[in-house]
Amino acid sequence: MTESASSKKGRPTPKRKEAEAARKVSSLAPASTREEKKRAKEAARQARIASRAAYLRGDESALPSRDKGPVKKFVRNYVDARRSIGEYFLPIIFVVLALTLIPSAIFQVGSIIIMYSVLLTSVVDGFFLSRKLKKVVSEKFPDADLKGVGMYGWLRSTQMRRMRTPKPSVNRGDTF
Questions:
Q1: Could you tell me the CA-to-CA distances from 100 to 11, 86, 91 in Å, in that order?
Q2: If residue 43 lies in a helix (H) or strand (E), which one and from where to where?
Q3: Transmembrane residues, as ranges (predicted)?
Q4: Angstrom distance (rounded) from CA 137 to CA 140
Q5: Among 52, 95, 147, 149, which residue carries the largest CB count within 10 Å?
Q6: How many angstroms separate the CA atoms of 114 and 132, rounded?
Q7: Domain coordinates of the chain in residue numbers?
Q8: Is 63's pLDDT higher than 90?
Q9: The whole model's pTM is what?
Q10: Sign of CA dihedral 120, 122, 123, 129
């Protein structure tokens, strides 16, 4: 046996009642510590609010890595300057849902046809948008990596304009 294993700790093991009482006392923080925690929590909340506002504005320093860079900014602006059927998909789905509630076979079948035709049109539009984006980006940024550019633009075009983040910084119809 080693010396540390045979030596005693120098005090008796506390009774359960004493250990629980000590634990309760130590968990009650003094008022000053509680105030410090409250101030730190409020400061963290304010920092999160400021960071979110910067992200929504499109500040480069606040953007996640998937949105950073001049290529992604160009793609966002290019997509935001045009209309696409994909951004109207969600409102159309609500109309389709309402039409399916009408107890008539023609309305129900018609609503399903509308839903799938809008979905198919959105996918076709996304395919052509992706190809166009890759072409335009390769002309404007010759040494840029085109990986993910098309999908990034298509996914942005399927979101309703007011729900996009970062918020659109160009008007519809602006040219590049």
A1: 77, 21, 15
A2: helix 31-57
A3: 88-107, 113-130
A4: 5
A5: 149
A6: 26
A7: 15-57, 65-163
A8: no
A9: 0.69
A10: positive
